[in-house]
Amino acid sequence: MGTLFTARMMNRLLQLRLHKRCLPPLAAANLASLAHLDASRPAGKYAYTVVDLETTGLDFRKDRIVSIGAVKLIDERIHLGRMFNQLVNPGRHMPAQAITIHGIVPSMLASAPSGMDTLDGFLDFLGSDILVAHPAWFDVAFLNRLMQARYGFRLQNLTIDNRLLCERLLLTKMLPALPRKPGLLGNDAADPERHRKQPDLEKIAHQLGIRIYQRHSAVGDALATAMILQRCLAKLTQTGRGRLRDLIRSGTV
């Protein structure tokens, strides 16, 4: 299981490796994104950025992002006035299979910024928030590919896998257990092939009585994920496990 202590140790090693580099302000800020976290504080008192991506395919090594959607959850409330919603030009062919899923056609992306040009805007929106995705392995892998190419390191925000939270807190009878793999706070938390066999976001939302606004739009799926996260945070509090350390224990491997 990932711990905040482990994440800080890895972050400290990264800072030592990069200490001679003059990092741009957004990169430097991301490098310090764990500094304000206290595992003993209530998890609901922190700010969360819930993100979802639409892509050209499922392989982060060769596929590209075509849309980034994110919403803020602060003090357990979703802030609808603070959303990040950006189409991204992948710079390559859009497979027909991907279009049938998210409905984004090449003409919609012709004037959109590239992934690299979009990254800084997303980092500015993200700040030092706890990052949440459903499932985290997919979205974070694509974002880290951009981070590595632009700044030479991965996102340093604490990352929570909302899919794991659902499995462990809300839907224990519906979902089979995920395999455990060594990982750090959501990175490479489980085998992608196994994840694809799990009930998807739509089925989980339906089970919880949550309606998804524009399914397979990045911002619509991010909003649904944020509503599911609200349920998870409330469940932790109801069971007397509402500290940040409890959230990390339930939402990471």
From TrEMBL:
It comes from the Bacteria. One of its GO terms (biological process) is DNA replication. GO terms for molecular function: 3'-5' exonuclease activity; DNA binding; DNA-directed DNA polymerase activity. Keywords: Exonuclease, Hydrolase, Nuclease. It comes from Desulfosarcina ovata subsp. sediminis. Residues 47-238 form the Exonuclease domain. NCBIfam families: dnaq. Coiled coil: none annotated. It holds the Pfam family RNase_T. PANTHER family: DNA POLYMERASE III SUBUNIT EPSILON, PROTEIN NEN2. This is DNA polymerase III subunit epsilon. GO terms for cellular component: cytosol.
